[in-house]
Design a protein that fits this description.
312 residues, mainly beta, Jelly Rolls, eight-stranded antiparallel sheet, 2 helices
Amino acid sequence: MMNYRIARKTGIAVLGSALLLGSAGLSTGALAAEGEIPSAQAAPSSHSMNALSPSQPPSQNFNLTKWKLTLPDASEITNLSNYSNAKWFYTDSATGGMVFVAPNLGSTTTNSSYTRSELREMLNASAGTTSYGNNWVTSTSSSSIKAQAGGVDGTMKATLRVDRVSTSGDTSKLGRVVVGQIHGPDTEPIRLYFHKRPSDSKGAIYFGTDDLNNNNTWVNVLGGPSSLNPSNGIALGQKWSYEIKVVGLKMTVKVTPEGGSTTTVNYNLPSGYNNKYLYYKAGVYNQNNTDTTSDKSDHVKATFFSLTHVHP
């Protein structure tokens, strides 16, 4: 079997016994996935759209006051008021959606080999990224840690469409993109993937979750890394929503295709995540760092139509 790697992870995927499966399953195994949506599919039906203005920068359509942005040249934008970037972060001229683009090849952040156009939650930017005050903790953390944190537990919700995934380069990396995360100091409780190979009609939705030793577990939602092209998957250009909620050590992930039913998966996080600072991320984190196109233009792209994060 080929040895596939995900994001910056170096450990092998292992099955966790902590899964509480609803209508979704779990699997481990290989990765692999497609290209651009036809122009006729570019805009979702108007009745489902939020009141977004195509003429405004993303910050005028979305509350971005508690986010910073990392771009595919590894730069960071901490003040997103009226900010846009014509290549990597801008407003869709037809729908008003917030567009994220990340090429296969580009500069990367520390400890990663992949480019991103991705928002990073900043609950109190002045406190610094490693401060509890800028991040949140679980409600099962100690009282003293919770008193320092910028929030306790959390819910992130997004509605989006994946417009394009990579189609060239290493076959084990085709069509993979992370569209939502919870990040910790050294590990990630969740990386939510859309994965569609060029031969697939629909993309799979699944997530990877780490223990505190950086061992990764794959969890199926709509298909998984070894069950791609699921009949209930998501097509390029199709709107769908996700919710990632943490209460104590219980993480709940919901995925809903537009006009379809919701799939819910519950997962118990390791107790080591108590007293760890956590933060949400949203956008596109390209999982292909190879490109065999003649002009090296292969990339991923997604458009978000809503994005919220709360910490009750």
